[in-house]
Write a structure and sequence with these properties.
418 residues; five-stranded antiparallel sheet; mainly beta
């Protein structure tokens, strides 16, 4: 196993922290990273409590970041558009910074709209209702709808079908049952759904047992999504995979994946050819395991493999499987967050970890990279870009300020110069 450790440039990190405290939308690149390098590390800060949520590659090969910030006591969703080198082109806030007496918004899922533009889903925190925001390709002319018929619901994921209609998965985090909602909204009117169906999720009652922000719709408008289900008790969670037809009271299947006794929490899911790949965490009292599963559209398991990160790298055993992406060669690249410190002891900080595996779920990784420094790094999303590199989105704590990290590595997980 090939494992490499990269360290952030400390003087630049300190400079970033000062810049973050003074400027909305500040971006800072590493001092050793050329402005037009195909690999990079960038930091973006909108306030002091930023949380990365989602990452997309745009049609012009740029990158789009969805994040939530807390500015002057108001929570806002923000879109940050960069070019292919991670250099910021624009930033938009929802609600706008200059809006008088604004409500608090948070968005968690995003999708590209046919013909350009974006759709985001989340929650109007002020009213406690489902929130849908659509924009044009430059993040302008936002149409904001708080869905009055969906009080208490938090939009988690959104997808668009061939007709341009939006499919939304939402959750009511305080409901004890039937707390997953699937809705369809017409592209010309997101104020109210065409239809809504509810499904059970066990006894999920808090945000940390929610759903990954991914939803997929096939040609027949069947919807696929995943998440975490409680297998018998709150101390026994498991990964799940759901498929539902449009506007029907029952799902086609709701599968709990993994061993009955395993304690597993879902992280992310992606399309993988004509199948789906899932990443999660098998929680253990000593050492957590990153779990990867591949499932067919019909719910048949192709493989299930667990990965232990090398214990010789001063890792505490605290690991979270965050996200995964399909590599250009058909393999998978996994993003995890790993605890740093003496094994078996509480973590002193957390770093990003990238693991490349083949498409068959072989237990031996192709390579492993741990990327981080003395600050806390929390992974959120990874994508493979059109040039074959991999872009990581995460949240980094610099001088007690949460900031957004955008990092691009090459196809082998390296950043030349580090």
């Amino acid at each position: 196993m090939n494992m490499t450790k990269f360290i952030h440039n400390t003087p630049i990190a300190k400079l970033c922290a000062l810049c973050f405290a003074l400027t909305i939308g500040c971006t800072q690149e590493s001092a050793v990273d050329p402005a037009k390098s195909s690999t990079f590390i960038r930091y973006f800060n909108g306030a002091f409590a930023d949380e990365a949520q989602a990452l997309l590659e745009t049609p012009d090969n740029g990158l789009l970041i969805l994040a939530n910030i807390n500015f002057e006591g108001i929570k806002r969703a923000t879109l940050i558009k960069t070019d292919e080198f991670g250099i910021m082109q624009w930033q938009r806030f929802f609600p706008a910074i200059d809006q008088n007496d604004p409500p608090s918004y948070a968005c968690y899922g995003i999708t590209l709209m046919p013909g350009g533009g974006f759709a985001m889903v989340g929650e109007n925190i002020t009213t406690g209702s489902l929130l849908i925001i659509t924009t044009d390709a430059d993040g302008n002319t936002p149409v904001v709808n708080t869905v009055a018929s969906a009080p208490g619901r938090k939009g988690v994921a959104v997808a668009v079908n061939s007709a341009g209609n939006l499919f939304v998965v939402a959750i009511n985090p305080v409901a004890a049952s039937q707390n997953i909602f699937l809705s369809e909204f017409a592209k010309t009117n997101t104020a109210g759904p065409n239809w809504t169906r509810s499904y059970g999720a066990g006894a999920l009652t808090s945000d940390d047992t929610g759903l990954p922000n991914k939803l997929f719709v096939d040609a027949a408008n069947n919807c696929y999504w995943g998440g975490t289900v409680l297998k018998g008790s709150p101390s026994n969670p498991g990964m799940r995979f759901m498929k539902a037809p449009p506007n029907e009271p029952s799902v086609l299947f709701d599968l709990t994946m993994g061993r009955p006794s395993a304690l597993e929490v879902a992280g992310d899911m992606i399309r993988y050819g004509n199948t789906f790949a899932f990443i999660g965490t098998n929680q253990s009292a000593t050492r957590d395991t990153v779990v990867v599963r591949r499932m067919t559209e019909g719910g048949t398991q192709v493989f299930s493999t667990g990965y232990l990160i090398d214990s010789q790298q001063q890792l505490t055993g605290e690991v979270t499987g965050n996200s995964l992406a399909v590599a250009r060669d058909g393999g998978l690249v996994l993003l995890s967050t790993v605890g740093i410190g003496p094994p078996g002891q509480p973590s002193t900080n957390f770093d990003y970890c990238l693991v490349k595996i083949d498409g068959l779920g072989s237990p031996n990784p192709v390579w492993t990279r741990i990327i981080g420094g003395r600050f806390n790094e929390r992974g959120k999303n990874i994508i493979t870009t059109s040039d074959g590199g991999h872009v990581v989105l995460g949240t980094t704590s610099l001088a007690n300020v949460n900031t957004i990290l955008l990092m691009k590595v090459d196809k082998d997980g390296n950043i030349p110069g580090f």
